[in-house]
Amino acid sequence: MRKVLLIFKYSPKLTVGVIILLLLIALALLEPTINYYRLGGRSSTEIGLFDTFLPPSREHPFGTEAYGRDVFSLLLTGLKYSLLIGFTAGALATFIAVVLASIAGYKGGRIEAFITTIANSI
Fold first, then answer.
1. At 70, is the secondary structure helix, strand, or coil?
2. pTM value?
3. For a FRET experiment, which of 32, 36, 60, 104 has its CA 20 to 30 Å from that of 81?
């Protein structure tokens, strides 16, 4: 634990990056609650909730768009799905890499050469 804290102490860029990532994850996790209270229980993708092309205000921090939807609510919804897809793709790619590396390491020889060549060409 002490080594982890030292990494954050000597790397301010890492610290800022981790804080931003944690903030985005928190916003994505709180998206249903935030949008529920901001939109009165209605969906953020529902058309015609508000007037079109309203400028930024206290009620609509980023304004509204051509279909009368709140841009901030759409942004939070998109953030949630973007993080979900990104983490899923990363986990799937890691799983595939571990399986292929295990096969290559266990079998060796031509199979290892083939898998290494394919991996290096991608």
1. strand
2. 0.80
3. 60
Number of domain units in the chain: 1
- Angle formed at CA 23 by CA 77 and CA 40, multiple of 5 degrees: 40
pLDDT at 2: 83
At 82, list the tokens: 């973007």
Q: pLDDT tens-digit profile of 60-109?
A: 999 999 999 999 999 999 999 999 999 999 999 999 999 999 999 999 89
What is the Cα–Cα distance from 34 to 54, expressed in whole angstroms?
A: 20
Q: How far apart are CA 51 and CA 48, in angstroms?
A: 7
48, 59 contact by CB (below 8 A): no
> Which pair of tokens denotes residue 97?
């890499």
Instruction: Please say whether the dihedral angle defined by the alpha carbons of residues 91, 93, 99 and 101, taken in this order, is positive or negative.
Output: negative
Rg (CA), the chain: 22
State the Cα–Cα distance between residues 40 and 44, nearest whole angstrom: 10
